[in-house]
Here is the input.
Amino acid sequence: MGLEIRQEAATPGALDEHASVSIAYVVDRVLQVTLVDGGLGGMALAEVPVADPYVKDYDAIKGEGPARWAKRFDVSNWGVISAFRDGARAGGAVIAFRTEDLHMLDGRDDVAALWDIRVAAGQRGSGVGSALFRAAEDWAGTRDCGWLKIETQNVNVAACRFYQKMGCGLGGIDRFAYPDLPAEVQLLWWKALQAPRR
Here is the structure.
């Protein structure tokens, strides 16, 4: 059986189901950010191995995770895209759009944020992530968004490589975005969307 992609509203139930797929991954390498000429020459990123690999699980951070989003934000304009293979949940994506209190959107109506994308451990590398990303692009495009914006960190090299493969460009690096995690660097990816076909 092939891959089935479904779209739905971001209800608490849909977000709970989305959370049933683990977002945890092993950090065994990072993108080390180095200033060139004090920053005047830009920044250089180099992939380096981690001496002691560890598991990063965003859902395990206190106050985070899909079950909390509807309490923190107005998710009435958000969408959930779910992937199923052989009837089992293989992954999902959540897209944020027109959310007044979500700084990631910069108050713009032409930007949608790929707020979360996750693929079940046994399905990673099988095309589920690419299918979810394309479905998120379509979802945003049908809402007249010109841009898809994605946040990740330098500790998630696989995600960075994935976004690059999907045609995103690195649009921002913030070395000081996470005061509680000074070793992590925020990376903001942008993807220009095609005008929707009508």
